[in-house]
Amino acid sequence: MATAAEGEEDGDAHERLHELTDLAPGYAIRTAVTLGLFDLVDGGVREAGDLARRARAHPPTLKALLDYLVSIDLLAAGEDGYRLTPISEELVEDDHSADEYHLEGAQAAFDASLSGLLHTVRTGEAGYRTLAGRTMTAAMEDEPRLAATARTAVEEEARWIAPGVLRAHDWSAVTELTATGHGSATVVNALVKEFPALRARIAAMPSALRELRDRILDGDVLPRVELVARSAAAPGGTDTLLMSRQLEWLADEDAVHVLSEAAESLTPGGTLILVEMVTAADADDVDAVLHHLRPKCAFGSGVRGADEVSALAERAGLAVRSREDIGWDHRLWVLVRPGSSEA
Prior knowledge:
Blueprint: H1 4-21, H2 24-35, H3 37-42, H4 48-55, H5 59-71, E1 75-78, E2 81-84, H6 86-93, H7 97-101, H8 106-112, H9 117-123, H10 136-142, H11 144-168, E3 176-181, H12 184-194, E4 199-204, H13 206-216, E5 225-229, E6 238-244, H14 252-265, E7 266-277, H15 286-299, H16 306-315, E8 319-327, E9 330-336
Helix pairs in contact: 4-5, 11-12, 11-13
């Protein structure tokens, strides 16, 4: 016969299991954020009918969502209508919440990519498909908001690694620089400030360049950086090419192809500076594990080990001249063509 203590432990375990497997709160909260419900309530819109009209939602269905949000303490209901709770006040006050929880943004898409985890674990390939049946790569190409929020998030992260990029290479010897990849604009921003004589250009799709011009590059830096619209490899005749976090959304064969094109764009003796996130040193870092699983499910890539990135470069016909730890689980590779004067 089970003791009272054992019964209590079983009950706690069952409740914990329910909490871990319940998908409803996340979807409900993200839907409310995407509709702007919490901002509307904060702005004084309190009645269900008014909220439905302002959010352009189906009234009976929205009422059901509002009732559920009340049940999980995201909203409070009273005689004067709906009010925010401490939890939803946090959502309204946090400037990053709109991008982080918006269902049409990159973070939500990466979180949703875990729905393809079963296929990915079985095959090692990307298992996620959007509701429209598209791959994440196709969705990034077709949905401007998705691509823009993804790039902006990486550019913001690049602020942490930019000082390490400046330290890990002799930039004083570089007169011209072409940069491409995610986070490259933030690094270029720091480089041009540190080395005013450096001539820099950033190659990216037109929509990405608009985002970089409007939100990333500082006003005093922008006139000194050429923005080049490109759909594929960097422009040819490049002496120094900085490629930042370009590979993390690419499967291995695609990563090798991109590196091969980058190598072909280099002048004889040219240098490819590659910056990539690598597997975290702390094997118990759960956030790092999830950061690997999301792009693995979405793109079939995941976060690679430093040796794996070096192997991709070698498969692309590049030689590793050096590899430096630049902090925050990132590495910087100096890559050259074999036989060049720099090898």
